[in-house]
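Folded chain entry —
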Amino acid sequence: MNRLSTLLIAVVTAMVVGLAGAQAALPEAAAEALDAGEARMAEALATYGAQYPDRPLWQQAFAEGRRAMSLAPEALEPVRFLAVAYSRSNWYGPAWNTWRDYVRRGGDVSQDAEAQTLIADVGQELGYGAYARGDTELALEYYQSIVDLVPGDVNAHVWSGRILIETERPEQSIASWQRVLELDPTDTRASYFLELAREQSLHGTAAVNAFRDGVALYEQERLGEASEAFARATTRNPEYAQAWAWLGRVAFERGQFRDAGTYYARAAALEPTNDTYAWFRAESARRAGD
């Protein structure tokens, strides 16, 4: 390495260190405002049994944070302080926007346990509120934003998967349920919905829902209604071999062997290697005298 290259590296290194130092060193007045804001926030948390943003100590904390921001507009510390204060006072909208602003400005929350907890809590409140109002797309935005910022938040993955299932986007929901199981392999709810999402992706949402209705009715011994549900499943997806087989099963148990043979024949044609379908097709034909 020649002398010029060494000199250039030294200059660049000094600039980086200098910028980092400038970011780290708040002006004295801004640091004092942040200290005052921290004190007011601590006092509010100790004083009030329930936290609301319109209470005097919280208003004072916000004012100090905004003053610090005006005195050091490029610094991240005042932004983070306000995000924390808005979160802890349950002022969810400004809290969410301020956390997003903090991240946009370069704030790193990946190793910030307090930030991750508050972001998840605020996002959950806003997401569930949107869901309860029927705005599923906005709710999904909140939950998926939590996933981006706090990848280990199980609840955000659950709600993302749930909304995608409910809005008939099973293919997109698969990743959410897989992630839930990675985070908690014992979650039987996630196992159920992952299987459902995969079935719906393969056969169609309407067909799978009708098929599952049929199974539930069959287990209740309501065979006539179960048959209608399985028939709906085959109408919605004529390539759904399992639905044809269950339609045949109900007909077989009701002694309707000619119909059972027809249904099992359709199932067997769709899955030629399924020996069970082939056997019931032949047995139905035998019992029908064909």
